Amino acid sequence: MFRFEEEIESPEANLTKIMKELEGVSVLWQKIVNCQEVFDGYKKLGFLEFDCMEKEDEVKGLRKGLNDLKGIDKKSGVFLGIMEDIKKWMFFLPLCAEMRDPSMETADGRHWDKVKKLVKKDFSIDKSLLIDEVWNLELYKYKDDVEDITD
C-alpha cells in the first residue's frame, strides 16, 4: 500500500466505522435483552389467564423492531438466535390460543389426554399451570398434531 497512499483510509474514517458498528451491535444487544425479559415475563403468567392474541402482537412488534435495525449483520449468530426464539413464540402463541379454546374442555378430558400423550408429559390444567410449563412442552415440535387435536 506504500505506493497507493490514496487507497488507504484515514485512521479517523476507520474509527468512525468501528464506532458506528459498535453502536449497532449495542442496540442489537439491548433489543435482545428486552426480548428475553418479555419472554421471561410471559413464562411467569398463568396459562388460563394468558392473552395469547395480545402477546402475539407484542412478539410481532419485537420482531419488527429487530428487522428494522440498520447497520448490523443480520446473518450473525446473535441475530439469528433471537429470531429463532421469536419464531418459536410465533408458533407457540397461536397453539396456546387453540388449546385455550372452550372446545378443549370436554367432560372426559380426552383432548388434553391426547396432547399429554403426544408430548409424553403429564400436567394439570388448572389455575396453577404457568406458561413456562406449557412452553417446556415444546409444542412447536408438534404443531400440526396439536392443531389436529384442537380442531
Please explain how this structure is put together.
The protein has 151 residues and is an all-alpha fold. It has one domain. The chain is 63% helix and 0% strand. The protein has six helices and no strands. It has helices spanning 11-43, 52-67, 77-99, 110-119, 131-135, 143-150. Helix 3 runs parallel beside helix 6.
Outline:
The protein has helices at residues 11-43, 52-67, 77-99, 110-119, 131-135, 143-150. By secondary structure, it is an all-alpha fold.
Task: List SSEs in N-to-C order.
Answer: HHHHHH
Helix content: 55-70%
Unreliable stretches, pLDDT < 50, 5 or more residues? none
Query: What is the general shape?
Result: elongated
Q: Tell me the number of helical segments per DSSP (H or I, 4 or more residues long).
A: 6
Calculate the terminal CA-CA distance, rounded to whole Å. Answer: 68 Å
Query: Roughly how many Å is the radius of gyration?
Result: 22 Å
What number of domains?
A: 1
Strand residue content: under 5%
- Integer average pLDDT: 88
Return the structural class. Answer: mainly alpha
Main β sheet profile = none
- What oligomeric arrangement do these chains adopt? single chain
According to DSSP, the number of beta strands is: 0
